[in-house]
Amino acid sequence: MEKVVCESCGREIPEKAKICPYCHQKNVARTGGAKSVLKKIWDAVVMLVGLAIIICGVSHYIKVSRTNEGKGADDPVVIAKTYMIALDERDAGLVSNYLDDRAGNSKIIDGLNQGIQEFEDNDVKPLNLSGMKYEVSEEYEKNGYTNITVIVDFAETGLFGGNTIFGKGGYYTLFMHKAKTPDGYKWFLGGVENE
């Protein structure tokens, strides 16, 4: 026997009732019972969850597609030169366009700021940027990236007899990787060591 359920409140009501005795609504329908109300609720929940997933997916796609927009360099030496200019001008912000949005860059900025602080503490004179030498390695694969190193040699460029902090030769080794941008693959700074 078919049950009669109120469309408004979902309660089972007498078979011949024209008005629900619980919510006093006139729209009474013959349905499969309380399960049909739960099914409607479940369908609504599934639809809302699906909509939320679609919205999150679109939002993530937009964010990822804009990641590194306007950043990176075609030539890794450009990044190395900018890093040395940032040290010379005591401005870590100069390398911001060469930091990968998908990577943790705090160590790079901390290291650059530490180098800037050492330059200030030791009253390092302006660097002879034009006299520096840049040695670029062959590309290699590591951690899912195409990588490269650029060694900056500032040993013979005229600070205290050489372009150094303490009067002796030195090198910076800059580690870089390629990452996707809206303009294609570009080089980004990934780490620095100084000797």
In summary, what is this structure?
By secondary structure, this protein is α+β, with helices and mostly antiparallel strands. It has three helices and seven strands; from the N terminus they run E-E-H-H-H-E-E-E-E-E.
Could you describe the 3D structure shown?
The strands form 2 sheets. Strands 3, 4, 5, 6 and 7 form a 5-stranded antiparallel beta sheet that branches. A two-stranded antiparallel ribbon has the order 1-2. The chain has 195 residues and is of the alpha+beta class. Helix 2 (76-89) packs across helix 3 (106-121). It is built from 3 helices and 7 strands; from the N terminus they run E-E-H-H-H-E-E-E-E-E. A hairpin with a 2-residue loop joins strand 6 (171-181) and strand 7. It starts with a strand and ends with a strand. The chain has helices at residues 34-66, 76-89, 106-121, and strands at 3-6, 28-31, 133-136, 140-142, 145-153, 171-181, 184-194.
